[in-house]
Prior knowledge:
Blueprint: E1 2-9, H1 11-14, H2 17-28, E2 35-46, E3 53-62, E4 84-88, H3 92-103, E5 107-111, H4 120-130, H5 164-173, H6 193-206, E6 210-212, E7 215-223, E8 226-234, E9 239-244, E10 247-249, H7 256-264, E11 269-271, E12 274-283, H8 284-291, E13 310-313, E14 316-324, E15 328-331, E16 341-344, E17 353-362, H9 374-389, E18 396-400, H10 401-405, E19 422-424, H11 427-430, H12 433-449, E20 459-464, E21 471-473, E22 488-490, H13 492-495, H14 501-521
Amino acid sequence: MIHELQVRVLPQVAASQEALIEYLVREHGLSHEEITHVRILRRSIDARQRTIYVNLKLRVYVNELPEDDGYARTVYGDVSESPQVVVVGEGPGGLFAALRLVELGLRPVVVERGKDVSSRRRDLAAITRTQRVDNESNYCFGEGGAGAYSDGKLYTRSKKRGNVEKILRVFCQHGASTAILADAHPHIGTDKLPLVIASMRDTILRSGGEVHHQTRMTQLLVEGDCVVGIEAEDTAQGVARRFMGPVILATGHSARDVYQYLHSSGIEIEAKGIAVGVRLEHPSKLIDQIQYHNPEGRGAYLPAAEYSFVTQVDGRGVYSFCMCPGGFVIPAATGPEQIVVNGMSPSNRGTRWSNSGMVVEMRAEDIEGDDPLRVMRFQESIERSCWIQGNRQQTAPAQRMYDFVKARFSQSLPQSSYAPGLMSSALHEWLPEAIANRLRQGFVIFGHNSRGFLTNEAVLIAVESRTSSPVRILRDGSTLQHIRIRGLFPCGEGAGYAGGIVSAGIDGERCAEMCAAYLKSS
């Protein structure tokens, strides 16, 4: 017999299978001897009051055992002799597009400008050591895309776009913990996600697909009004290669050379709004104290606390973004003369710091002109200003939070997780006024709503500018093909149709499905 129950328990009960069984025996009249297994289907923390509770949806097995491991697995067959589709980019959009193509009986050929997920580690470590960024292998470019080493959060609001649970199941099938199927805000962690990504790549290869690293697309091959393949440069060998087939273009939100190429080639794109601001880093213990209403912090049974803030200032949103409890701030530039910061957390969320992007909404109309690349140009300009302020290295300009609000220079800075180092800078003077003024007012509001949040123990690290793509590659809503050229399927964050790992994965699957329909009708 199987019972499904909704329970509300203390954190120490939720943390232990044995304690949960004792609770069920005591509160629900079940026999200890009859309970053979308890599976958590949903889990969320309610920290609105001083007493913290964990809400659980449970499946309780009585006198029987589960027949599976809690999720349905996807079958990937042999597609080695099947029609070919080129997938440009091996971030979440490209990976899930490729896996879905295999499901649909098509052969994906994945082309990724960066290195494999393991080799990327050396280039990421070198940023701190050399203060230089490899243009082709960094926190944004390489197998797994920006998500591989920037946290692995799997929370999305895009449930109307597709099957979120399917995306999570595929992650589990490739090595992620099944806890992500239950958690309200699922998270794999930057220490675990690379192994999952490598396993996904192996599935593509075992099924008869191809994956080419250090291979950068240089142009689309067009016949009439159809894309029939790509030309690419094998940067490791220094040779040009061609890959034939319809193209799923999933190059990520930082592939500026791709946007420039598309624009110069007459492929229609448009400017898209983004959000720009800073990384705000607090001591994690302080965030735990605030969010859990406890001077002792989170204690032994609660995870590092999360927060979410949003307000409106002068007609634009000011909000927290990509909150990383128990995490690090990382250097996320993709080329020379840039400083860009992002955040990540390991799976245990166990560092001494917690950070989030604190950003201001910018719409395309906020930037003068009609150039489709004008928002991207704005990104470039603010990232270069940040690099200049950071002494033309990856040393990031920073300011204590309360000093920023009071418009005063910080004479010292707190310890930080940002490995390349911080340099005290008057962010309030050189950040664009529309951003600095809105951030200042937003911080005052957030500090009023959450006592202790506005503090000089926290530091602002500039600049957070890669929140989403500054460009949208126009596509037809029903076929997902480009509005003018058949056989080209703009995909994921880089095309302006997703935000985050899960929504990019969903969009990748949809593009694969539309590509399959296109081939069938051709």
